[in-house]
Structure formats: structure tokens, C-alpha cells
Amino acid sequence: WVPYLRREKSIEVPEADLDAFLTELLGSAELPPLQMPKELQYEEATPKPRPSLRISKLSFHYGGERLKAELSFKYEGRLVPEKTMAQGFYDASTRRLVRRDCAAEKAACELLDEIGVKYPASTWGRELARDLAPTKLPRIVRSLVEKGWHVEADGKLFRRPGEFHLAVSSGVDWFELRGEVEYGESKAELP
Hints:
Layout: H1 2-8, H2 18-26, E1 43-45, E2 50-57, E3 67-75, E4 78-81, E5 88-91, E6 96-99, H3 102-115, E7 130-132, H4 137-146, E8 150-153, E9 156-158, E10 161-170, E11 175-183, E12 186-190
Parallel strand pairs: 1-6, 2-8
Antiparallel strand pairs: 2-3, 3-4, 3-7, 5-6, 8-9, 10-11, 11-12
């Protein structure tokens, strides 16, 4: 469409296809500055993403057991994989362009490199993915969860414990202990 635009200087889109067109256009990897008619203007936002790491067993690896780590970023409920080329995404229902926060994403990548979740030196034709040693998993999970990351390993979500409540009641020859720990929106009760 770029050669067409250079030649014609404008693009006409049927009204019925407008939302689909804007979704595709605004999700482009290299989006130039746009001049939109007033009736097509949209709101732009660059919210802070929540880093998300999904850890699973590597199906094939030379040189010892390794775990695969896939990094994504959660923007307003939408998960964007680290390697996605789009600069953002357009939500037609709210007429809003959510731009990715490159600085926050870079900081998350640097943190993973620092704690040992890195890309291997050679992939030998395999899919490029970060990996880590299984022995480092507990330390890495604890570190990331403390920093507010969403961490999932083999389908299990790790959460940072929230408030802890204890209640003791007693009588002449008995006592009862009840406890509760919050994990995000979930609660674990004792006994």
C-alpha cells in the first residue's frame, strides 16, 4: 500500500471496513506520523506494561537440562509477546491506540539477562527463546514475583502473598486458631 499512497497521496476506505483498516494500520511495525480527518481521530496512550514470563521444559536441548522462558508484556489485558514487531495495538471499540512502552520493555529484558534468563549463544535452527537452568528457577521466580511480574511455570501461576490474618478464640479448656493469606484476588484459609 506504500507505493499506492506515494502515487495517490490518500487512501479511501469503505466505512464498513474502517475499524479493520485502522486496526491493521495502527498495529504496523513501523508506523509513520499520520494525519487523520477529525472524525477518524483516536486517543493515544502508553501505559506501563506488566511483564509476564511463561516457563516450560525445553523439548530438545544439548548440554544438560534447560527450561524455556517466554517473555510477554500485558497492556490493559492484552498479552504482547516480546518479539512482536508492532509498536502498539488499536482498540476499535474505544477508539484508542495503545503504544508499547519500549523503555519499560527494555528494562524487563535487561533484568532477565542479569538474573540468568538469557538467549542461548547458538540455536542451531531451533526457535529462538530465552532459557535458564532448572536449579535457578526458585531464585528467579521469587525475584520476579517480588517485582510484580506475572510468572507461570508449567501452567502454575506464582503469586506474591499479600496480607496475613490470624484470629485466636478460646474458652475454658479449648482454643481455636484461624488464618487467612491473600494471594492476589484469591485467599487461602487455615484450617
